[in-house]
Specification:
The protein is of the alpha/beta class. It has a domain at about 25-130 and about 165-250: Chloramphenicol acetyltransferase-like domain (Chloramphenicol Acetyltransferase, 2-Layer Sandwich). It has helices at about 5-10, 10-20, 35-45, 50-65, 120-130, 140-145, 150-160, 165-170, 230-245; strands at about 25-30, 70-75, 80-85, 90-95, 105-110, 175-180, 195-210, 210-225. The protein has a six-stranded mixed β-sheet. A hairpin with a 5-residue loop joins strand 2 (about 70-75) and strand 3. The longest helix has 16 residues, at about 230-245.
């Protein structure tokens, strides 16, 4: 490994050393992406492209906003406790290439995920993917960490995420990582937040609908939660809410703001809506 490659990964090592204090637990669910894919196809025909990760950011932001326990942090050693984090911001993991041709993992914190529209989120995602890595939010801090001697850089990282405000600014209040652009069905990672969503690819799979086997686009969604911050039942509620939000995407189209919604944030059914339900339950 070249020296430049080693230096470019220093910030990742600082994060991993800090993250060893967490107690990650992993959940997973299959998501019927039929309605999301229908919406993507319709928008493509109209000249607008939306990536799957943007739908996930949209859904997760709304659900995390409804669960304060999912946007908190663990604090203290002698007196362990949790502290709430301000706002609803997502830390998005990015696969980028440096000027020297080295492939590195970078992150960007996207604000206002509880209120941003799908178009606004996609614009942010495109900006992060297409911008020069040096122009990404937080890039200057990453460069500084990579230039410092490792012991000093690790100390600087720990001090930089110690308070709730700094944690939310630099690591977000929830994290999203996707490997769906490759032949990856399931993976789990810890993004340094109370909950981390891990998206695999969308692939046609056999499902049972009305007693018949049919093919449907399915995404396997993982959720890693820090057991120091919340328990499994609360984390399961968060994952279930995101799954329902994605499977019931017709309730998130333009013009539905302010309409009555259920506990998962989905608009209540109306006459003319397609039947909806968990994977395999729709006709």
């Amino acid at each position: 490994m070249s020296l430049s490659r080693d230096r470019a990964r220093r910030h990742t090592r600082h994060f991993l050393n800090w993250a060893r204090a967490a107690t990650p637990v992993h959940l997973g669910a299959d998501v019927d992406m039929t309605r999301v894919e229908e919406h993507r196809s319709a928008e493509r025909a109209a000249g607008r492209r939306y990536s799957v990760v943007s739908y996930l950011l949209y859904a997760a932001g709304r659900i995390v906003a409804r669960h304060p326990e999912a946007r908190a942090m663990a604090r203290g050693v002698l007196w362990p406790r949790t502290a709430p984090l301000p706002d609803v911001a997502a830390k998005l993991a990015l696969d980028r290439t440096t000027e020297s041709g080295e492939r590195v993992a970078l992150t960007a914190v996207l604000p206002r995920m509880d209120v941003a529209t799908l178009t606004e989120i996609q614009d942010l995602v495109d900006l992060c993917r297409e911008s020069d890595p040096h122009d990404l939010p937080g890039a200057a801090a990453v460069r500084l960490l990579n230039q410092l001697p490792p012991p000093v850089g690790e100390l600087a990282f720990r001090l930089g995420v110690r308070t709730p405000g700094a944690r939310a600014q630099r690591l977000g209040t929830f994290a999203v990582s996707s490997l769906g652009h490759r032949a990856v069905d399931v993976f789990h990672s810890y993004g340094g937040t109370a909950v981390t969503f891990c998206a695999g690819r969308v692939a046609d799979r056999a499902v049972v609908r009305g007693g018949r086997i049919a093919a449907a686009p399915v995404m396997r969604l993982g959720l890693t939660f820090d057991h120091r911050v919340l328990d499994g039942a609360a984390a399961a509620d968060v994952l279930d809410g995101v799954v329902k939000r994605l499977e019931g995407w017709h309730g998130d189209l333009s013009g539905t703001r302010g309409e009555p919604r259920d506990g998962a944030g989905i608009r209540t059914a109306r006459a003319g809506d397609r039947p909806r339900g968990p994977l395999g339950a729709s006709p």
